[in-house]
């Protein structure tokens, strides 16, 4: 007689089923019913164990990706610096992006986080609170509101680079690192306010299209 399935077994089967289905279809195309059927679980299992499809996907991404960053970022928290924070964030990326499964997970993380900014993350480093605290510790005198805004803007820049699931070139990775450090540090002269910006006397520059990469 096979052993009885535990709640943990069911939860893991739901995570595995969701990951397999999401590797083949987009978030909106994967249904709660389909995940439960693929996991051979009760149709209400996703809502029982996670509350919603959104929270199931958040739990999936945390369980698969948090181990890649937790130790690195914990070390930065113990000895905070802006460069250390950026380097700890970027270090695992190309190794993950070079692996089909890792690339799929990063792409899913990027697309999901951009489309669901109000997701309730449980793992500490998936919340802006941890990043804000480290940035404040790294830059004495920086207030939490400004630090949080800088962190949010940094992720708004980083996540679209991960969405295609392709490795970054050395030049792109270097430019991204420099830009993130400068943005989080707040270096440079403040930009002029809109009222102070002069009317251009020459044609506007051509900006990259949304599909262009660094």
From TrEMBL:
Superkingdom of origin organism: Bacteria
DNA-binding region: 31-50
Residues annotated as domain HTH tetR-type: 8-68
Pfam families in the cross-refs: TetR_N (PF00440)
Keyword Methyltransferase annotated: no
UniProtKB keywords: DNA-binding
Gene3D superfamilies referenced in this protein's UniProt entry, alphabetically: Tetracycline Repressor, domain 2 (1.10.357.10)
InterPro entries reported for this sequence: DNA-bd_HTH_TetR-type_CS, Homeodomain-like_sf, HTH-type_TetR-like_transc_reg, HTH_TetR
Region (Disordered): 190-214
Single annotated GO MF: transcription cis-regulatory region binding
Protein name: Putative TetR family transcriptional regulator
């Amino acid at each position: 007689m096979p052993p009885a399935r535990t709640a943990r077994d069911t939860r893991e089967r739901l995570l595995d089923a969701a990951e397999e289905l999401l590797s083949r279809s987009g978030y909106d195309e994967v249904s709660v019913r389909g995940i439960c059927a693929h996991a051979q679980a009760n149709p209400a299992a996703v809502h029982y164990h996670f509350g919603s499809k959104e929270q199931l996907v958040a739990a999936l991404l945390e369980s698969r990706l948090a181990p890649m960053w937790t130790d690195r970022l914990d070390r930065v928290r113990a000895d905070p610096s802006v460069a250390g924070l950026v380097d700890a964030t970027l270090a695992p990326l190309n190794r993950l992006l070079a692996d089909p499964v890792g690339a799929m997970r990063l792409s899913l993380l990027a697309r999901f986080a951009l489309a669901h900014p109000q997701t309730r993350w449980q793992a500490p480093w998936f919340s802006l609170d941890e990043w804000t605290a480290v940035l404040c510790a790294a830059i004495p005198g920086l207030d939490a509101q400004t630090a949080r805004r800088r962190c949010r803007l940094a992720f708004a820049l980083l996540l679209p680079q991960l969405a295609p699931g392709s490795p970054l070139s050395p030049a792109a990775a270097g430019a991204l690192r420099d830009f993130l450090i400068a943005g989080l540090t707040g270096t440079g002269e403040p930009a002029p306010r809109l009222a102070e910006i002069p009317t251009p006397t020459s044609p506007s520059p051509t900006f990259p299209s949304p599909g262009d990469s660094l």
